[in-house]
Design a protein that fits this description.
Layout: H1 2-12, H2 23-37, E1 39-43, H3 66-69, H4 81-84, E2 85-89, E3 93-99, E4 104-112, H5 117-127, E5 136-141, H6 150-167, E6 170-173, H7 179-194, E7 202-208, E8 224-228, E9 248-253, H8 264-275, E10 290-295, H9 299-310, E11 315-318, H10 323-331, H11 341-352, H12 361-375, E12 381-384, H13 394-407, H14 414-427, H15 430-437, H16 450-458, H17 462-470, H18 475-478, H19 482-490, H20 496-516, E13 528-531, H21 532-543, E14 560-563, H22 574-578, H23 594-604, H24 608-617, H25 621-638, H26 642-669, H27 671-679, H28 690-696, H29 700-703, H30 706-717, H31 726-734, H32 747-769, H33 773-779, H34 789-797, H35 800-823, H36 832-853, H37 861-869, H38 872-891, H39 897-914, H40 926-961, H41 968-983, H42 1026-1080, H43 1089-1102, H44 1119-1145, H45 1148-1204, H46 1219-1233, E15 1272-1275, E16 1303-1307, E17 1313-1325, E18 1333-1340, E19 1345-1347, E20 1350-1352, H47 1363-1367, H48 1369-1376, E21 1383-1390, E22 1399-1409, H49 1415-1426, E23 1431-1435, H50 1444-1456
Length: about 1450
């Protein structure tokens, strides 16, 4: 809701309100927030170290404040980190600029080690404006510079940036210009150089402030904007420079100088904080995943990997990067028993080189234990090997590691798959979803994928939408609930349609309040109601009022959802008000098509990819494409964004092309069905037709298709055949008896003739084959009948073609009569011919009125009037009628008789111009009229340019020749008329002395029939400079006659060439209106048309009959016919898409891309084979060596077996391993069979700060000597951690049967030796079918999880006393009495985290099964009801959320009852 509100607010806010705050105010607010929330640490007590002027904190004396150098409160005290380092507001923050090529810049802040992670996360997202990540990649490894092979380096760079770019991840590193951090920075740099979309990769460096070189340039009390940082790697010494390719820096300060690793704890807390945030949608239960990527590294990196895996964070190790990464990679695929101390020593020496000599034996043992713990979690460990094709690239390995970790969680099943799919959608990695999620193991239902489909649609992930549709998502089921569609419109991105929809909702809300008198109440957070009816109104406004609403208003309140909109003062436009008109008389329920709904949702936001997918699923695809073209063009027309409007126009053309492609396939397949599709009323698009949508969308290319024109020609001819020559039709119009002969062919006769020919053809085939099946099937068809005599006559004169010809004859007769009246019979008193003319014109006026109000498509009067006025011929009709009425009114008066005649003569010219309309039907002359119209527009602009030269020359000439002429008519004649005639060769005589005649002019301008003479001198000759007037005339002729006239010719030629290619298309488009006009026109021409008008008037007013509905332009089919037609259209659409795809694949561009991809693949494979050939040989040798060792061990076992049976060997072969190795081998076999305890050897003892002594797998058994084993002692008797080096004698009497644990004493347990617990598993059958087994679970409020009823016991014969409080005294005693009837599912040692060398846990799992009619069952159910959720029945299944030990107990109980777990 907040996202929608923000989008609406931005869309509807006035420009003045969109102005952002000034940069100065933003910087001031940011500085204030930093000082209030971010601190640094500084030493407040200067104590000299061994070196001069250097404090114990590492800083020099000059770096301390004055009060630290001369302390008052701490005199005589020793320096203490906790007391003498304090927090103060930070003084280093702002923007950092590294300079150099590219001027790389970033943001930084100096933060304290005690800063809360939530504050840092807010700094990153709110203040630094970073989008919350969809993935957190923590890159760790070697801090020193190390060498990476070229191929591995390139793959790491490419893969890291690809996963960050595609998933929107944050990359978290140490931030310095060394080691792995440097490689990450180089990857970001390479991306910035090669990509035009800079700033997308977020690389956050978390570094130690006290170990940064040149940090002084970052310090300023008010922040640095920017701080110019100098990278000086040569003089940095023990310090490190910041990496200039990172985008953000968190510089962690603990108040000391020169100490590395200060940031580790805060970085870990920040990663944990980020991993707890919700991913994507806040309502989603998935949190931000974290993955650790490891390159190189030493012991510190091993600790980081170990802690990450124990915390459930998956790790990706890059083999070949060096040191600890290669050690782990080498042992990751080995059995745990083979990972020994000796092997780790060998690998450490191999990969660490000289550094290995500094390692102690205890460190090797500790690292061996940690490596064993690491490889014990294979679901969290992923090793990327360059030579293997399993992972492909590093980005795939990272994402596969995250999905593998998600798969291995305890709650397996569909919920786990859903989480993985949601992650893949948020990352926008459809390749991962295809290979890892949609596999044979996962069984998906359509309902299981609805949430993913919603996320993919809202997140604009078209590839995922296609993938989900391919894997069984049904759009019909997905949008079965209207709330889902409402939510989709709620989640629309900020776009033009959303703004319009918000205004409509607001206006509807205000109208409702006015109608019902509801007082407006300002309630905080209360939004206005919007429903699909609002969407339908807005879509109807875009499509046109001739359509019905796509979504009918629902009375149920559930069809609405709240949407907050900005309270604007702008009201709806008139067009919007029109769209709220009530639907037409056809009140049938609007049909819902889920594909149509998704397609419409994508179109209104101008989303081409999603719309394309949905269009392929639409049932009425041709109507959908044309409707999309209309909607997009309407939005482009109304929108104010020119770029967005251009995109809408391009998408509209794209769908017009789709409509043309589908219709072409339909027309080729079956012409009759294709024509039926054009005029079929679509139930999914407002009961309109494809042809009407194409006309409203101005899709000229579609209307110009041969199939559409064939339909129009068929309608034009009516029931006559389209093959009839025009001259035959004209003859039959006069001599109609010829229609009863074969002189004129009717369409019905053609159909009968084709059927007869088909029948004869079938009979000829039957004579050859001898089969009668074809004749029988043909005989079952309905036979057509020939037209009768009266029907033929009606069909002839009701044909639009014949109506047109009669109207032409009538119009010529009208013009002839008009001309006769004007030239011969125009008397003071109107004659009979003139009266006939007036009556004739009256019938023409009636027809024009009928055309204006005739509305078979339901456009409404406003739309119909607009369409009428936009037609040029209608404008001429109105103009001619108005002039005729005005001239007639003048003519009937005595004073204005002659002006009236003049007006009628001018009106005759207009009527003659109207005669050009008859040529629009001609295929030859029709396009030429379009060219004439365009040239008239060019002529208008040309005349404006020509008038400049005419007026300029005319005024100058008139002023030079004539002095003070005050006669306006002669001024206009001399300044405008004469210069205009000069262009056409009428040269003046008064500019030349030789041609001057004083008798042709008037001296003083007194003669009204003569022009005024030019200025004369004493001898009565012109005084003007002859040379000037002649030069002016020559220049005028040069520009006007030569330049401008040739320019006009060139313009006409350009217009002709430009329009010539489109005139045929435009003519075909405009031809529709003429055909429709004469189709609806009465049969009789003027003046006899008045009788048809009287009939229509009586029919509508007296008889009250509805208008006659014609099926030629809109045909309502039955449901069965429509379903059959749409199914056939869908088949044709598939053919079109297939042919379009084949054409695309065969294009030159596609072939070049495929060839380039193949060449790249071949080169990569060759390079990989070259690098991995030696590695493959080494691997095969290692496998061979392992097989030899196994064979040796098998021979030793055979020898031992023979010796135990009394056989002796003649010669004992030398052993290949020591005695300790033999013992270790036997222990390995035991461990592989039974397994040593793991939880009891966990590094950190629970509920304490103690660390166990590391115990590798081979040293667990007490039988194996472990001389360096020195575990600490711990007993929690006083409630605090207690470590004692002495060993009481009593400890020797108790030894953990599972082996060594790394800690001595009682630990957190209550006693030495076994600590017995009892797990009570009460089970029942859910119903009488015994299909579902349930168990009684207890809700543990402290942990927030379910657990089994359990507690410590001295004997398994009684329930734990602690259960008395949980179950109640009565129920406890009842069940305690049935303990003897229970079954022990398990009894023995339990691998518990609290176990020590001298104290351990032993558990008895007791199952008591209760029958349905048992009295105990009634007591248990009553207790469950009374405890209100504290006790509950749960299904026994693998999805149960219990701790691992109790899950094992439940699994054993399921086996007792023969149930799968």
């Amino acid at each position: 809701m907040s996202q929608l509100f923000h989008a609406l607010k931005v869309s509807t806010t006035r420009p003045s309100e969109q102005l952002s705050l000034s940069p100065f105010f933003q910087r001031y607010a940011f500085t204030s927030w930093i000082k209030d929330n971010i601190c640094k640490k500084e030493c407040c007590f200067f104590e000299k170290d061994a070196r001069a002027d250097v404090c114990r904190c590492g800083y020099s004396k000059t770096d301390h404040v004055d009060e630290a150098i001369k302390p008052e409160d701490f005199t005589g005290d020793l320096w203490d980190r906790h007391r003498h380092i304090r927090e103060v507001p930070t003084d280093a923050f702002g923007d950092i600029s590294f300079g150099g090529l590219g001027q790389r810049a970033g943001k930084y802040a100096r933060v304290s080690t005690d800063t809360r992670p939530e504050v840092l996360y807010r700094l990153l997202t709110d203040k630094w404006k970073l989008s919350p990540p969809n993935l957190l990649i923590s890159v760790t490894g070697g801090a020193k510079n190390f060498y990476l092979k070229a191929r591995l380096k390139n793959m790491f760079h490419r893969g890291l940036i690809k996963v960050a770019q595609t998933t929107g991840a944050w990359i978290l590193t140490g931030g310095t210009h060394t080691g792995v951090m440097k490689h990450v920075g180089q990857a970001v740099r390479d991306y910035a150089l090669s990509s035009s979309l800079q700033g997308q990769i977020v690389a956050i460096g978390v570094a130690t402030w006290g170990a940064i070189h040149n940090r002084e340039s970052l310090v300023h009390s008010e922040g640095c904007f920017p701080a110019h940082y100098l990278m000086d790697t040569k003089d940095q010494g023990r310090l490190s420079c910041l990496d200039n390719n990172h985008t953000h820096f968190l510089l962690v300060d603990d108040g000391t100088h020169g100490n590395y690793g200060v940031e580790i704890e805060l970085r870990s807390h920040l990663e944990k904080c980020i991993s707890g945030k919700r991913l994507g949608n806040k309502e989603s239960g998935v949190t931000i995943p974290v993955v650790c990527v490891v390159l190189d590294g030493g012991p510190g990196t091993l600790n980081t990997i170990h802690n990450a895996l124990l915390n459930g964070t998956p790790c990706v190790i890059l083999e070949g990067s060096g040191r600890i990464a290669d050690v782990i990679a080498q042992v990751s695929g080995l059995p745990l028993a083979l990972v020994t101390i000796a092997l780790i020593q060998q690998l450490m020496k191999r990969f660490f080189g000289q550094e290995y000599d500094t390692f102690s034996n205890h460190s090797i043992i500790e690292w061996t234990k940690k490596i064993q713990d690491i490889i014990r979690l294979p679901h969290l460990l992923t090793v990327f090997r360059v030579g293997e094709d399993d992972h492909g690239d590093v980005d795939v390995a990272i994402l596969q590691a995250l999905l593998k970790a998600s798969k291995s969680r305890e709650s397996l099943g569909i919920e786990s798959w859903k989480r993985q799919l949601e992650l893949a959608i948020i990352w926008n990695r459809v390749d991962i979803a295809e290979t890892e999620i949609f596999t044979e193991e996962s069984q998906w239902k359509s309902s299981d994928l609805h949430g993913a489909m919603f996320s993919a649609l809202v997140g604009n992930k078209p590839q995922f939408v296609s993938l989900l549709l391919e894997n069984g998502v049904s759009l019909r089921d997905f949008l079965e609930d209207e709330e889902t569609l409402c939510e989709l419109y709620k989640q629309l991105p900020s776009c033009f349609f959303l703004c319009k929809l918000a205004k409509r909702v607001h206006s509807s809300h205000r109208t409702t309040k006015k109608l019902f008198g509801i007082r407006a109440r300002a309630r905080k957070g209360q939004g206005e109601m919007i429903s699909l009816a609002h969407v339908a109104d807005e879509v109807r406004h875009l499509l046109g009022n001739f359509t019905q609403p796509l979504y009918l208003p629902s009375p149920a309140p559930n069809d609405h959802f709240n949407m907050c909109v900005e309270d604007t003062s702008s009201s709806l436009s008139k067009s919007q008000a029109d769209s709220q008109d009530p639907p037409r008389e056809d009140n049938t329920e609007a049909q819902r098509d889920a594909s149509r709904d998704v397609f419409l949702w994508a179109i209104v936001q101008n989303n081409k990819e999603l719309a394309e997918i949905a269009w392929e699923q639409c049932r009425d695809c041709m109507s959908a494409a044309l409707a999309a073209s209309k909607i997009l063009k309407k939005m482009a027309e109304e929108g104010s964004d020119a770029d967005e409007a251009e995109k809408m126009q391009e998408l509209a053309k794209h769908y017009e092309k789709h409509a043309i492609g589908v219709f072409s396939e339909c027309h080729v397949g079956d012409q009759e069905r294709a024509q039926k599709l054009l005029v079929c009323a679509s139930q999914f698009w407002g009961r309109t037709t494809c042809l009407r949508l194409a006309l409203e969308a101005d899709d000229k290319s579609f209307v110009a298709q041969s199939g559409v024109q064939a339909l129009l020609t068929q309608i034009w001819c009516g029931e006559l055949s389209v093959d009839n020559p025009v001259w035959r039709v004209l003859i039959c119009m006069v001599f109609f008896p010829l229609i009863y002969t074969s002189f004129l062919v009717f369409r019905c006769d053609e159909v009968i003739q084709r059927e007869a020919e088909k029948k004869e053809e079938i009979k000829s085939v039957e004579t050859v084959t001898g089969s009668t099946l074809r004749t029988n099937s043909l005989g079952s068809q309905q036979r057509l009948k020939r037209l009768r005599c009266w029907s033929r006559l009606l069909c002839l004169y009701s044909s639009p073609q014949v109506k047109f010809y009669w109207n032409i004859v009538s119009y010529f007769a009208f013009l002839f009569l008009f001309a006769v009246v004007l030239m011969i019979d125009f008397q003071t008193t109107p004659s009979a011919g003139e009266l006939l003319l007036y009556m004739w014109l009256f019938t023409v006026v009636c027809e024009e009125v009928r055309q204006l109000f005739h509305d078979p498509d339901g456009f409404g009067f406003r739309k119909k009037a607009k369409m009428y006025i936009n037609e040029l011929w209608n404008i001429l009709d109105v103009l001619s009628i108005l002039l005729f009425v005005l001239g007639l009114s003048f003519r009937l008066t005595t004073k204005l008789f002659y002006p009236g005649k003049i007006l009628l003569c001018i009106d005759f010219v207009v009527f003659c111009l109207r005669l050009m309309a008859i040529f629009t039907i001609s295929r030859t002359l029709g396009p030429k009229i379009i060219i004439v119209k365009r040239m008239m527009m060019d002529m208008f602009f040309f005349m404006f340019l020509l008038s400049i030269w005419v007026v300029a020359y005319g005024v100058a000439k008139q002023g030079i020749l004539i002095h003070n002429d005050d006669r306006l008519d002669w001024i206009v004649r001399g300044a405008v008329y004469e210069p205009y005639l000069i262009i056409f060769g009428n040269f003046p005589n008064n500019i030349d002395y030789a041609a001057f005649d004083i008798d042709t002019c008037s001296m003083n301008g007194t003669d009204p029939l003569k022009p005024k003479c030019p200025v004369l001198n004493e001898n009565q000759t012109p005084a003007f400079p002859e040379w000037l007037t002649i030069i002016m005339l020559c220049v005028y002729l040069l520009f006007a006659n030569i330049l401008l006239l040739n320019l006009l010719i060139a313009i006409f030629n350009f217009t002709f060439q430009e329009v010539q290619d489109n005139t045929d298309r435009i003519w075909k488009f405009q031809r529709y209106e003429l055909i429709k006009e004469y189709h609806s026109r009465p049969t009789a021409p003027p003046p006899f048309i008045i009788f048809s008008h009287l009939y229509l008037l009586i029919r509508s007013t007296v008889l009250r009959k509805p208008p006659i509905a014609y099926k030629e332009f809109r045909n309502e089919l039955s449901q069965i016919e429509e379903e059959e037609l749409l199914s056939w259209e869908a088949l044709m659409k598939d053919r079109y898409l297939l042919s379009a795809k084949q054409e695309q694949n065969q294009s030159v561009e596609r072939r070049i891309l495929d060839t380039a991809q193949k060449v790249t693949t071949i080169s990569d494979r060759l390079e990989r084979e070259e690098e991995t050939s030696s590695a493959a040989v080494v691997k095969r040798l290692a496998q061979l060596e392992e097989q030899v060792i196994q064979s040796t061990r098998a021979l030793e076992w055979i020898v031992d077996s023979l010796k135990s049976q009394g056989f002796t060997a003649k010669q004992t072969q030398s052993q290949t391993s020591t005695t300790s190795d033999k013992t270790a081998d036997s222990l390995r076999n035991t461990s592989e069979k039974d397994g040593f305890h793991v939880n009891a050897r966990h590094c950190y003892y629970p509920n304490s700060k103690l660390t166990r002594f590391p115990v590798p797998e081979e040293k667990v058994s007490w039988k194996v000597s472990f001389s360096s084993y020195l575990p600490i002692y711990y007993a929690s008797e006083d409630g605090d951690d207690h470590v004692d080096g002495s060993e009481p004698e009593a400890l020797n009497n108790y030894r953990n049967p599972g082996g060594r644990t790394g800690i001595r004493g009682r630990g957190a347990l209550s006693r030495l030796g076994p600590n017995r617990n009892l797990d009570l598993v009460l089970t029942r059958w859910r119903d009488s079918t015994m299909s579902v087994l349930e168990y009684l679970a207890v809700w543990d409020e402290s942990r927030g999880t379910l657990t089994l009823p359990r507690g410590p016991v001295d004997s398994a014969d009684h329930l734990p006393p602690t259960l008395k409080k949980t179950m109640g005294k009565t129920l406890y005693e009842t069940i305690n009495a049935k303990v003897s009837e229970g079954t022990k599912a398990f009894e023995g040692y339990v691998d518990d985290y609290r176990n020590t060398d001298n104290a351990w846990v032993e558990t008895t799992v007791l199952n008591i099964h209760l029958g349905t009619t048992s009295p105990v069952m009634m007591d248990v159910n009553n207790m469950v009801l009374s405890r209100s959720g504290h006790l509950r029945w749960e299904e026994v299944s693998s999805r149960t959320r219990l701790v691992s030990n109790q899950r094992d107990s439940l699994r054993r109980v399921a086996e007792l009852h023969n149930r799968k777990f």
